[in-house]
Specification:
The chain contains 14 helices and 11 strands. It is α/β, with parallel strands linked by helices and 357 residues long. The protein folds into 2 domains: 212 residues, 3-Layer(aba) Sandwich (Rossmann fold), CATH 3.40.50.620; 120 residues. The mean pLDDT is 91.
Amino acid sequence: MQRFFEKYQIDDKVVAAGVSGGADSLALVLRLHEWATSCGRRVVALTVDHGLRPESFQEAQYVAEVMRGYGIEHHLLCWEGAKPVHGIEEAAREARYRLLAEWCLANRVRVLATGHHRRDQAETFLLRLIRGSGVYGLSGILPVSERGGLMIIRPQLDKTPEELRAYLTERGVRWVEDPSNRNDDFLRVKIRQFLPVLEKELGLSEARLAKTAAVLSETRAFVESEVQARISAGVRVWNGAGFSFKMSLFASWPEEMKFRVLAELLRRCGQRDYIPEAAELKRLMIMLSERSFKGCTLGGCEIFPFRQQIWIVSETLGRSSVLLKKDWEAFVNAHPEYAHVDLPYKLRRKLLQAGAA
């Protein structure tokens, strides 16, 4: 644990950990607690009860009991309301992250740890390979990522599930087996069942799959650094209201850079956790290369040409107020740096709404 926190320069005094009662997450929170106790930090355990199984509340109470035994602060978060009939696995995952994030942000906790391990990494690699992912997708589960203002950390990606179970067994801690892990209606479960066959027949072990994802993550990191360099050098940031860049500059970039820069700008401007669908982004790239392009919306943003530049502004939903000349003049008086800048109407309206904050 210490090496992980040093490597990623995480010095927060409080770390939250999602714990379900399964072996992976129980081992995570107890390992974190051991580390935190040794260096004057604190761990808070968060359990989400999805309410999808009759026994889920009892399992959550068991987690609370274990946490009390170790002196770890614990909170139970419940997924209230109607549950979807279809896509329940994805909906439950989104609800879990939403509830965890809401608690963390409300309590000013910046770091959230999850119990993903090496087998999860191998399964994710194959799952995304089946879906036709590129370098970003095949990089798998990242050790550190950002979501909704939180730093999500996964310090157990180098551990096997067998190692984590052995850790709990040594301490006399039992864990809960989630029945959904045996439900082969889920593609991930089918992949998990097939992993031993891949290793036996082809020598393709989960360790090798995880290593491949790690190598690709290094490629991803390089691409991301190039994306940030191009944004810094060629994209104008308009005080949180939008972005702009020259059409000629965009046309000079390699196709992959066009795709990645657009994806990142749309994600930031639209304030989303994820980028738009790849097919939609590629369609936008084609449209931007056409002289007839007049504008479109994607990812909660408006994209349009103006004065030989491409502009990206967050989309205005519902009825929008008209930008009055007197209001803009008052704004410019307060922010004279905009006095002689020819800006599109949509950006001026956003600037006024944001107060150039």
